[in-house]
């Protein structure tokens, strides 16, 4: 490398160091705010779902309006993830999916609204490493699904189906408009909640953005509209935590994978995510588990993708934890 090239590379590294220092010391807000978009982009055709998204919902996202004289019952819905395939298996690990049900007293119609991954949880948690593209490729969109009916057995057999309140028809219509606006601007799913430690007073570095967070946002909106919500049971929800020291901002795709001076960082990120690639054989999966343990536990390192940007997490014990904890109704 020429002297001029070396100087340019050094200046670039110094610039990135200054930017990271400036972000962490002068501007950084914790938890990092979830970044919304102006409108939802079309999903890339490369992304494929094992199970189709919202198969019985209206293709145009249309939701019927209710008369103001109507009384709409509100139901808290919860069931083990993939209950339709594995029954209560993931429920024993407290890995639950959440939704909200509605029932019209005037028409007798029932409805369910939920927010979940377009291309399943694995695609939302880890990217694809494609040979012809240096940057990892993400299929991490999530979206709202509104469909007719409440599958009573699906929710009640291994989970929860509980009436928690009532709405007027106008309140329901206002909530529907809010769901559509929320869905248009909050487009990507985030599995992890990242904290400094498990204690109640821990610093939260990043919040998840998943099915339960959608339910909480909707409950808050309903109370803003004047609804009174209450539950006779404890309202617990699944949280998947990573524990780390203060995260370091790294950059986005173009600033990391488009810079020769950062090829080592780019390569490390690709290697890290390659460990979690989909469609592995049993032998490959066993090897990947050992590689993941080495990286996350022994080297105490994790790369997080949030707001279309990469962060490095200096991991701390207990590293990862799945909890089923109470979040009271607003």
UniProtKB/TrEMBL annotation:
Catalyzed reactions: 2 1-octadecanoyl-sn-glycero-3-phospho-(1'-sn-glycerol) = 1-octadecanoyl-sn-glycero-3-phospho-(3'-octadecanoyl-1'-sn-glycerol) + sn-glycero-3-phospho-(1'-sn-glycerol); 2 1-hexadecanoyl-sn-glycero-3-phospho-(1'-sn-glycerol) = 1-hexadecanoyl-sn-glycero-3-phospho-(3'-hexadecanoyl-1'-sn-glycerol) + sn-glycero-3-phospho-(1'-sn-glycerol); 2 1-acyl-sn-glycero-3-phospho-(1'-sn-glycerol) = 1-acyl-sn-glycero-3-phospho-(3'-acyl-sn-1'-glycerol) + sn-glycero-3-phospho-(1'-sn-glycerol); 2 1-tetradecanoyl-sn-glycero-3-phospho-(1'-sn-glycerol) = 1-tetradecanoyl-sn-glycero-3-phospho-(3'-tetradecanoyl-1'-sn-glycerol) + sn-glycero-3-phospho-(1'-sn-glycerol)
Record-annotated membrane-spanning stretches: none
N-terminal signal peptide: 1-20
Pfam family, one: CLN5
Entry keyword Signal: yes
Entry superkingdom: Eukaryota
GO molecular function list: palmitoyl-(protein) hydrolase activity
Keywords: Glycoprotein, Signal
Keyword Cell inner membrane: no
Function: Exhibits palmitoyl protein thioesterase (S-depalmitoylation) activity in vitro and most likely plays a role in protein S-depalmitoylation.
Family: Belongs to the CLN5 family.
Identification of the protein by name: Bis(monoacylglycero)phosphate synthase CLN5
């Amino acid at each position: 490398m020429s002297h001029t090239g070396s100087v340019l590379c050094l200046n670039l590294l110094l610039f990135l160091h200054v930017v990271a220092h400036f972000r962490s010391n002068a501007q950084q807000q914790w938890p990092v705010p979830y970044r919304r978009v102006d409108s939802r982009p079309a999903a890339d055709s490369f992304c494929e779902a094992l199970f189709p998204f919202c198969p019985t919902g209206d293709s145009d996202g249309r939701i019927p309006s209710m008369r103001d004289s109507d009384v709409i019952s509100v139901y808290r819905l919860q069931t083990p993830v993939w209950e339709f395939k594995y029954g209560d298996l993931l429920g024993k690990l407290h890995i639950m999916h959440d939704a909200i049900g509605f029932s019209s007293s005037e028409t007798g119609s029932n409805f369910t609204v939920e927010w979940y991954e377009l291309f399943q949880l694995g695609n939302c948690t880890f990217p694809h490493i494609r040979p012809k593209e240096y940057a990892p490729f993400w299929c991490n969109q999530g979206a709202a699904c509104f469909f007719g009916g409440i599958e009573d057995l699906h929710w009640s057999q291994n989970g929860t189906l509980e009436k928690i309140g009532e709405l007027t028809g106008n309140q329901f219509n206002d909530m529907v408009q809010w769901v559509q606006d929320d869905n248009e601007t909050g487009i990507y799913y985030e599995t992890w909640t990242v904290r400094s430690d498990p204690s109640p007073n821990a610093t939260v570095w990043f919040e998840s953005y998943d099915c339960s967070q959608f339910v909480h946002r909707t409950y808050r909106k309903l109370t803003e509209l004047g609804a009174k919500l209450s539950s006779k049971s404890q309202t617990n929800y699944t949280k998947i935590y990573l524990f780390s020291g203060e995260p370091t901002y790294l950059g986005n795709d173009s600033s990391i994978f488009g810079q020769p001076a950062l090829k080592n960082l780019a390569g490390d990120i690709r290697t890290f995510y390659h460990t979690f690639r989909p469609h592995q054989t049993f032998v490959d999966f066993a090897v990947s588990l050992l590689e993941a343990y080495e990286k996350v536990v022994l080297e105490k390192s994790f790369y997080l993708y949030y707001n279309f940007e990469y962060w490095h997490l200096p991991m701390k014990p207990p590293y990862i934890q799945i909890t089923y904890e109470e979040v009271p109704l607003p």
